[in-house]
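Please check the following.

. . .
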Amino acid sequence: MKLLVVLSRVPYPLEKGDKLRAYHLVSRLARRHEIYLFCLSDQPVAAEHVEHLKGICHHIEVVRIPRWRLLLRLLTAPFVRLPYQVAYFHHRHAQRRMDSVLATFRPDHVLCQLVRTTEYVRHRHDLPRTLDFMDTLSKGMERRTETAPFHLRPIFRAETRRLIAYENLMFDLFDHNIIISAQDREYLYHPERGSVAVIPNGVDLEHFSPREAPKTHDLLFTGNMNYPPNIDSVVYLARRVLPLVRRKRPGTTLLISGVDPSPQVRELARRDPLITVSGWVKDIRDSYASARLFCAPMQIGTGLQNKLLEALAMGVPCITSALANNAVGAPPGEAILIGENPEDYAAHILRLLEHEDERARLAESGLRFVRDRFDWDRSAGMVEELLRAGRNG
């Protein structure tokens, strides 16, 4: 099959969730199908990253969108009634490149990741199309509205309404729709959301596996540290949970590891010498291996937290919110611990830090769970079944 995959980012290196999902699914689909990878990029892309992807896909095209075009497009977005997240990524020169690819490659199927990319094939009713919603952008925006500064809330509410309408439209236009978790499927506002195929992420169990290393940090949080739900979560951890822990364990340390930390995240380390903000690290496994506990008190956001899967796979005991675990599905109290408020999180952290045998029990159970449930080959196989179904699945 000739498969055209449309992405809003170049899916390598693997420092963000959408890249991770795209990379692992595409690399497996490319074993049996001819893949044309069409990627948008709002920043320069290293030549070695493109070369790496060329070793996986048969064809790749990266369309660079300069910053001035992005700003101009956002100014015109209100007049074309597109959500800002869609308008940001849709540009005439990129559309011309897409039209050329469609004419020369002549794909049997088009796979779009996120509604950000669907405008490029919106009117191609002659082609079978599958949309990977991945998560529900409208729900994520709706949650951000609740915590946004007062002056930004009207803009966020308007964007939420536009995203809901646009997600529903794309739902109807595409032949197949997939999403990352049953929880996110329920967040869709479309009346036929039950028909969406749930295809979870996997975890690379050969890459992420338990590793012996000195424990130089008590607590760890990882992720794209410029992503609002991650910023919200780690600020909550540092300012509301950690002070409670330190009443009994004054020297408790926290490592915040991940690409592109925001000024708000960097400020946490400036104010507290026991908090380390590493920024991008060459091998994130070093961060996981250095920590006694992984804590992700996610309060907003959607999707499946890859950070939790990776930590579980590396045998690190995990504490998170019900919101995050609903997508993962780990048995609370057995493979993962759930907090509802700062006091809950602090109590879990203190108990695990004080009892090594309890840490070992939770880590072993979490590792067993993730090995049984999350497999990239199985997820890619589910995607392949839909693609082969064409328009009759």
Q: What stands out?
A: The longest strand covers residues 34-41.
